[in-house]
Each structure stands twice: as C-alpha cells, then as structure tokens.
Amino acid sequence: MTSSPGTPLGYRRVLLKVSGEALMGDGNYGIDPTTVDSIASDIASVAASGTEVCLVVGGGNIFRGVAAAAKGMDRAQGDYAGMLATVINALMVQNALERAGVATRVMSAIQMSAIAEPYIRRRAVRHMEKGRVVIFAAGTGNPFFTTDTAAALRAAEMECDALFKGTQVDGVYDADPRKKPDAKRFESLSYMDVLSRDLSVMDAAAISLARENRLPIVVFNIHNTGAFAQVMRGEGLFTRIIETD
C-alpha cells in the first residue's frame, strides 16, 4: 500500500468513511441536501486531483440496529434494516456527486440490482481505475458488523493507502469535546492506544482489521469546507492512527 509519487495529494487510492450523522447537517435526523452537496464537492475536488476514491456511507441518521435491539427488536433484523438505510444514503451521495460532475457507481453488499451493482471486488477496482468514485453500501452484508468495520474491510480489499473517517469533530479526543471543552485532541495514536484506552473513534473490530493490514486511519471534521483534500495534504487538524512498532 504505497503512495504514488505522481499523485498530487500523495495518495494513489483512499477510502472515505462518511457517517450517517454527518449527512444530517444541523438536523436531528434525516438528510440535509446542503450538507450532502458540500461533502460531494469536497470529494469531487479530491477525485479531480488524480487520487482514486471510494466511500462507505453509514446509516445512523435513518436507523440504528443497535438502538432498535436495545428496545427489544431482534438484533439481526435491526442490522439488516440499518443496511438498507445505508443504501438510501449512498444513493443521495451518488446523486450529489453526479451533479458535481463525478462519475460514480453504488455497489451493494445486499443484492438489489434495480438500484445498485452487486459488490464484486475486481469490478470495484476497475471502476476506480477508470476514474469513477465507488460508493459501498449495505455494510458488509452481515448483521453484527458496523459500517466502520465495513470501511476497514473495503479499504483493505481495495488496497487503499489510507482510510479517512469524516466525523463531527476534528480528530480523536480523550473525551467528547462537545461536552468537555478541555478535552485533549491527539495528534497521533497507535492502534493499541485506541483499543487499550477504549476510545470511541471506531469499533474494536475495525481497528483490529486496520492494524492487521497496517492501514493508516485519519480522523477529521468532514464539515469543514475542503477538509478532505486539506488533510490529505497533511494540513489542518486531524488525528492519525498508525502502527508504531
């Protein structure tokens, strides 16, 4: 997983994980079109630079299987409903990207041929080689796995140089900075730091998968205009999770 020196932003291929909550904007649920357009514009600028881009989109703005299970719903059934929520979000992001002039393909881990291609690794790679942005929907296609784990899995399968996680804050903190103004932001962490401190940046399965594949994770605030391209240049505020051994 080495970067191509000819790529303007220093990365040959990257995966961007966009949480469902990031699509809400200032709302409490649902999708804010202005926010989606802003994120799409940011992705378009990175794709135009020559870096191959793929995405995993969450579904927490519409449905959370874990929350439903806590209220008595069957966990597996709730997770499948959550996967369908990610497909809705993927189609919204696809629409915004195409309006921004970016060719895209949505690939779903659950077959639904009328609206998305089935996920086939080689086909996904070929799409990116042709300059298309690929959006992976429906998580891993299995219950009990989060979209964070799906992001780490797809990034490893696509042989990405890094996994970028766009969140509501500009990195990983030792506490929620929205609740504790004196929370400390980490510049860099190891995978084991994240696991041992139980930091809530990604679930343990995703971190472990990234660690096994030596996949760097970059956490940043996706709501800052142009932040995706900025952090790819090593500028702005972000936290990098890497292997330190």
Notes on the protein architecture:
- The protein has 245 residues and is α/β, with parallel strands linked by helices.
- Helices cover 36% and strands 19% of the residues.
- The strands form 2 sheets. The chain has a 9-stranded mixed β-sheet with strand order 4-3-5-2-1-6-10-11-9, with helices on both faces. It has a two-stranded antiparallel ribbon with strand order 7-8.
- Helix 1 packs across helix 3 (75-99) and helix 5 runs parallel beside helix 7 (204-212).
- The protein is globular.
- Residues 1-8 have low confidence and may be disordered.
Determine the CATH topology: Carbamate kinase
Structural class by SSE content: alpha/beta
* CATH architectural group: 3-Layer(aba) Sandwich
Number of domains: 1
Helical element count?
A: 8
How many strands in all? 11
What percentage of residues falls in helices of 4 or more residues? 25-40%
CATH superfamily: Acetylglutamate kinase-like
Work out the oligomeric state of the chains in this entry: single chain
Strand content: 15-25%
Global mean pLDDT:
91
**Main sheet: which strands, in order across?**
4-3-5-2-1-6-10-11-9
Radius of gyration: 17 Å
Low-confidence residue ranges: 1-8
**Order of helical and strand elements:** EHEHHEEHEHEEEEHHEHE
Biggest sheet statistics? 9 strands, mixed
